Amino acid sequence: MQNINTYILAIESSCDDTSCAILCNEKVLSNVTANQSIHEQYGGVVPELASRDHQKNIVPVVEAALKKAKVSLSQINAIAVTRGPGLMGSLLVGLNFAKSLSLSLNIPLIEVNHMQAHIMAHFIKEEEQKKPDFPFICLTVSGGHTQLVQVNSHFSYDVLGQTIDDAIGEAFDKAAKILGLPYPGGPLIDKYAKEGDCFKYKFPDSKLPGYDFSFSGIKTAFLYFIQKETSKNPDFVQQNLKDICASIQHHLVNQLLKKTVTLIQNTSINQLAIAGGVSANSELRKRVKDMEDELGIQTFIPRFEYCTDNAAMIGITAYFKYLNKEFAGLDITPFATFHS
Ligand code: KG4
Ligand code: ZN
Q: Ligand 1 pocket, 149 CB below 6 A?
């Protein structure tokens, strides 16, 4: 018989954040994340170092999540874990830990697709947080992916457009690296952009037709622009950092929203959600919110803690799978690239 309350312990370790969340049904009781600062000096995530740090972090993070939630292991009904996409070594740490817990506690294991989980974060039960109805459009924007998805139900998705090269988060991080900012540079570009003039510098638009995105051209254009300006004035970046950040951010958000607006106008779907790490970006959040009045649609913007990688989104996805009794075998292996 179904428990009245279902407690799920969820683990996320697909990239460089080790996260554990405890959920009671659709509510998050705790969501604890250990970030890895070691990658800052390398300008990007070093996979081998990431998996080593997950090994160190996973036990303290799980213990902290249980303590914060005031829940004991004996109360947990299922273990949820990210199976992919992500870095193989990082995923293996979380998956093997989750398998061991499931085996030792004799409770089901639930595997979760990381990209679906970013979208499902919208179904976490929160006071005063409205949830989208099906179908809705989700712009999923992270360090590894950029997708326009039609969400038909909790587990039925159609990917209508996606990046053919770099992800939007990568474009933010690479632009930041060119400016000499540490990894991950996306949040820093956002911070400096707040006080800059977003119309000062112009960059070429992607000419890709349809709903797909391309960000590799802008990376090169931005590099050449900075090289040209610093050859004339070596202090160019330092003197104009805020305006450069505001201009490149404005350009990148324009690329995302141009396709999103066209898609909304070409469908009868009038609900738009954003998800993933880049949905923490202030300009993107503001401009999506403004679309409510401009296009007469409803928009759904996640709380900051559910934008970047976190285990709460894994837990909520697993909760709906638990209701469907969709359990995984202990023989599952991680997958590195996207599949739905
Ligand atoms: O979803 P996420 O935590 O990890 C992946 O699944 O990839 O996304 C991380 C990405 C990084 O590229 C990071 O720079 C970007 O999200 N990001 C931001 C902001 N916060 C995080 N990009 C722009 N503005 C932000 N405020
Ligand atoms: Zn992510």
A: no
Q: Is the predicted pLDDT of residue 169 greater than 80, yes or no? A: yes
The C-alpha atoms of residue 198 and residue 83 are separated, in whole angstroms, by 39
Mean pLDDT of 90-98: 97
Residue of 31, 178, 278, 306 to test ligand 1 pocket, by largest number of atoms within 8 Å of CB: 278
The finding on whether 184 has its CB within 6 A of some atom of ligand 1 is yes
Is 80 exposed, middle or buried, given 0-12, 13-18 or 19+ CB atoms closer than 10 A?
buried
Listed in sequence order, the DSSP H helices in 180-311 are 186-193, 216-232, 236-266, 282-295
For the question of whether the overall pTM of this predicted structure is more than 0.90, the answer is: yes
- Residue found under tokens 């956002």: 190
**Per-residue pLDDT band at 53 (split at 50, 70, 90):** confident
| 340 — pLDDT class (breaks 50, 70, 90) | very low
Residues 6+ positions from 209 with CB-CB distance below 8 Å: none
Query: pLDDT at position 286, please?
Result: 98
Residue (of 67, 79, 73, 7) closest to 32 by Cα position: 67
> For residue 146, how far is its CA from the centre of ligand 2 (angstroms)?
11
> Which ligand places an atom closest to the C-alpha of 276?
1
Distance 73 CA to ligand 2 centre (A): 27
Residue-range domains of the chain with CATH: 7-122+307-323 (3.30.420.40), 130-302 (3.30.420.40)
